[in-house]
Design brief:
Blueprint (H helix, E strand, L loop, with lengths): L3 H7 L17 H5 L12 E3 L2 E4 L24 E3 L2 E13 L7 E6 L5 E7 L3 E8 L8 E3 L20 E6 L6 E6 L6 H6 L3 E7 L14 E9 L1 E2 L14 E4 L2 E2 L2 E6 L1 E8 L6 E5 L4 E6 L2 E9 L2 E3 L4 E7 L8 E6 L2 E11 L21 E10 L5 E4 L11 E4 L3 E8 L8 E5 L4 E6 L14 E4 L4 E7 L6 E7 L2 H4 L4 E7 L1
Parallel strand pairs: 4-7, 6-11, 12-17, 16-24, 25-28, 27-34
Antiparallel strand pairs: 1-2, 2-13, 3-4, 4-5, 7-9, 8-10, 10-11, 12-14, 14-15, 17-22, 18-21, 18-23, 19-20, 19-22, 23-24, 25-26, 28-32, 29-31, 29-33, 30-32, 33-34
Length: 491
């Protein structure tokens, strides 16, 4: 029997495996209905003597009772010399997530989730973060090619009351990125409590494609959570996070015109993997972690592990006003699109989007293994060792391209892992010598790895930046107990 701390660390990792072991004292009802298998829209259930919210509406259990908001786009405080300047406070905020209830969260700028920054390729962004929280924090731009001093190294902390300016040069092609806390040992709880937001890089070179834009380009962050009957957020066993949120609302609806939309999906959950399906319309995938694919791909379902992003176009012109289309995960409905009106539409999805550059020659092959030491309290390991910020696990020369085989070493336990590499995107070459899946297409920085399986990837370290960066499991409860390692980029 796993103790409670082990269950907190491993719980979400069990969802893809054969084991569903309860934490000590966990009720049989909780074991039968873990987070990855919870059914939304039900009433309240008992757990550990308290009432847990499990439906989309606390009083009726009705789904689609609230509209899905679109995250606010932050306006620069100042724009000058090819630079946009922002300021964001990291602070507690009382927000309404569940209908009629108030939940205290951590926030960027007092909202859940944080404000969206829309940057441009070739134009620098400076963001000054002020820590008004009672604990040290930092900020990592997930997917960003940034100087080491602005990457949010796990031990480079912003103490309570301090401010710091992060520099994002944006010398990369257009992509859907996100920013989140990365303070070692506390990143999992801080992100779970709300420290996450969109960072969208728009590339002027893509304007000629005429993809849907403006109000028809909609970012949607997906995650799970657990609440008690008062609306208090519960940070506990990942298997009990039974409420799915789309832009911070449970099972919302979103009104759309009968035309094409570009949806940018982010999985900002700590451990949940989504498998998305849309009833009544095609999903045309146009992008992944690192931006646009070479060509659009029609998808019947799309997998999205923690930290991953996908971009799709949905053409609602094939529907009539009054139609309702449900986006669902394997566990149930996530979001409903309500078609309201016809409008003119001059956007398109061209047959060619953005070519992938040819892979350069490589000389270096590396092995990376993600696993747990369960001899006592769980310790995350990379190549058999827990994270040490004073140790350089790999030394990599700037400008080189390398092939890494990343293996999930917990096959006997059935734990999933999810690999994330800082600084650069990579290309998936194969999975256990088999071709990559559709979910692996394009430039990636995060990739799920089932228990006992491996992924071979190629990363090219051609950025301008030197210094220390990390790579780790993006099941954040795993990285927080040491499943992380460090590379040093040298001239």
């Amino acid at each position: 029997m796993l103790n409670r701390r082990k269950a907190l660390t491993l719980g979400g990792g069990l969802l893809g495996g054969a084991l569903f072991l309860p934490a000590c004292g966990t009720s049989q009802a909780a074991m039968i209905r873990p987070a990855g298998h919870a059914t939304q829209g039900t009433l309240l259930q008992q757990h550990h003597g308290s009432v847990l919210y499990t439906g989309a509406d606390a009083s009726t259990g009705a789904a689609y009772s609230v509209p899905m908001p679109v995250p606010q786009v932050l306006t620069p405080l100042e724009s000058k010399d090819n630079t946009d300047i922002y300021r964001i406070a990291i602070e507690q905020a009382n927000v309404q997530i569940l209908p009629g209830l108030t939940t205290q969260m951590l926030s960027y700028g007092g909202r859940f989730g944080g404000p969206t920054i829309r940057a441009r390729t070739g134009r620098r962004v400076l963001v000054t973060y002020q820590n008004r929280h009672t604990e040290p924090v930092n900020v990592h731009l997930h997917g960003g090619h940034v100087p080491a001093a602005s990457d949010g190294h796990p031990t480079d902390l912003l103490q309570p009351g301090q401010s710091r300016t992060y520099e994002y040069p944006n010398r990369q092609q257009g992509a859907t990125l996100w920013y989140h806390d990365h303070s070692h040992h506390t990143e999992a709880e801080h992100v779970y409590r709300g420290l996450h937001g969109f960072y969208l890089i728009e590339d002027p070179a893509e304007a000629s494609l005429r993809l849907p834009d403006g109000e028809f380009d909609v970012p949607i962050m997906l995650r799970d959570a657990q609440f008690d009957e008062r609306g208090t957020l519960v940070y506990g066993d990942p298997r009990l996070r039974n409420v799915i949120l789309a832009n911070g609302k449970p099972q919302p609806y979103f009104q759309v015109a009968a035309r094409k939309y570009r949806f940018r999906f982010l999985n900002c959950a700590n451990e949940r993997t989504f498998r998305l399906r849309l009833g009544g319309a095609e999903m045309i995938q146009i992008g992944s972690d690192g931006g646009l694919l070479p060509a659009p791909v029609i998808r019947s379902d799309i997998g999205l592990g923690p930290g991953e992003r996908t971009e799709i176009v949905v053409d609602f012109s094939r529907n009539k006003p009054g139609d309702q289309l449900v986006l669902a995960d394997e566990t149930g409905p996530v979001l409903r699109f309500d078609v309201t009106r016809p409008v003119a539409d001059h956007s398109r999805v061209p047959a060619a989007l953005r070519p992938l550059a040819a892979l350069p020659a490589t000389k270096t092959n590396r092995e990376v293994s993600l696993s747990f030491d369960l001899s006592g309290d769980p310790v995350g390991l990379v190549n058999g060792r827990p994270y040490d910020p004073d140790r350089d696990d790999f030394v990599i020369r700037r400008g080189t391209s390398e092939i890494w085989r990343v293996t999930n070493g917990d096959g006997s336990f059935g734990f999933e892992h999810n690999f994330h590499l800082h600084l650069v995107q990579f290309r998936i070459l194969d999975r256990d010598s088999q071709p990559p899946t559709l979910d692996d297409a394009g430039l990636k920085d995060t990739v799920p790895i089932p228990a006992g399986k491996s992924v071979r990837l190629q990363a090219t370290f051609d950025s301008d930046y030197l210094g220390r960066y990390v790579y780790h499991c993006h099941f954040l409860e795993h990285s927080s107990v040491g499943m992380m390692a460090q590379m040093k980029i040298v001239p």
